[in-house]
Amino acid sequence: MKTFLMAATAYVFTFTVVMLIGVSAMNTKEPEKEKSKGEKIETAKEEAQEKAEGGKIETTEEEAQKKDEDGKNEVKTSEGVRPPAGLLLVLQKAAERNADAVKMFAELCQQELERKKQLQKDINLTAEVIYWENWYTDKNREAAYDTGAVAWNRVKSPEFPDTLEGVLYQKGQYSTTKYFFTQDLPKECYEMAEDIVLNGTPDVPETVLFQATFKQGKVWKVINGEYFCFG
C-alpha cells in the first residue's frame, strides 16, 4: 500500500511536470506567432511604401521625359519660350478669321446705317411732295396719298429716274421743289409718307404716273380738280 501511494505520487508529479512544460511551451510559441504576424504586417507596409516610392519615381521620370519631348517643339527666344510653330499657325489663322469677321460686321453695320439714312431721306422727300403738291392747298388725305403714290410709281417706271430724289428734281416736273424743306410740315404728311415708303401703295395702279390740275392722258381718278392719269 505504501508502495502504491509512492508510485501514484510519482505519477501525479510526473504528469504535473509534463503539463507545466506543455503550457510553458504553448505560451512561448504564441508570442512567437504574434511576433511573426507583426513582422509580416511591417514587411507588407514596407513593401507598399517602397512600391509607392518606386511609382513616384517612375511618374517623375515619365513627366520629365514628356517635358523633354515637349521642349523639343518649343523655341527659346530672348523673351522666353515661344509656342510651337504649329500652334502659332493655328492662332494666326484664328486671328485672321476673327479680323475678317470684325471687318464684315463693320461693313454690315455701315450698310445698315446707310440704309436707314436713305429710308429717312425718302420719307422726308415724300412728306414734302405730299404737302407742297396737295396738302398745302387742299388738305385732302386721299389726294395727298395718291400724290405720293404717283411719285413712287415714277421711281419704278423705266421712263423716269430710279430714285425719288431724281424723280422729284427732274427738270420740268415738280416745280414745288423750290419750297422743299423751308418750313415744318404737319405730322399727317409724315404719317402718310412713312406708310407709302414702308408699305408701298397697293391701292394705286403702278401705271398711274401723272398728277396735275389738268389732264395728261387717260384719267384714273379726279379729286377736287386734281387729275390722276395713266402714263
Describe the biggest sheet? 3 strands, antiparallel
Mean pLDDT: 77
Gross morphology: elongated
CATH class (first level) name of the domain at 107-230: Mainly Alpha
Structural class: mainly alpha
Q: Kindly state the percentage of residues in helix.
A: 55-70%
CATH architecture of the domain at 107-230: Orthogonal Bundle
The CATH superfamily of the domain at 107-230 appears as Cell wall hydrolase SleB, domain 1
CATH topology of the domain at 107-230, what is it called?
A: Arc Repressor Mutant, subunit A
Number of helices: 5
How would you sum up this structure in a few lines?
This protein is mainly alpha-helical. The chain is built from 5 helices and 5 strands.
Structural summary, described in words:
- By secondary structure, the protein is mostly helical.
- It has a domain at 107-230: Arc Repressor Mutant, subunit A (Orthogonal Bundle), CATH 1.10.10.2520.
- It has five helices and five strands; from the N terminus they run αββααααβββ.
- The strands form two sheets. A three-stranded antiparallel beta sheet has the order 3-5-4, with helices on one face.
- The protein is elongated.
- The protein starts with a helix and ends with a strand.
Highlighted features:
231 residues; mainly alpha; Arc Repressor Mutant, subunit A; two-stranded antiparallel sheet; 9% strand; elongated; disordered N terminus
Q: What are the SSEs and their pairings?
A:
Elements: H1 2-73, E1 75-77, E2 80-82, H2 85-135, H3 141-156, H4 164-168, H5 187-199, E3 208-212, E4 219-223, E5 226-230
Antiparallel strand pairs: 1-2, 3-5, 4-5
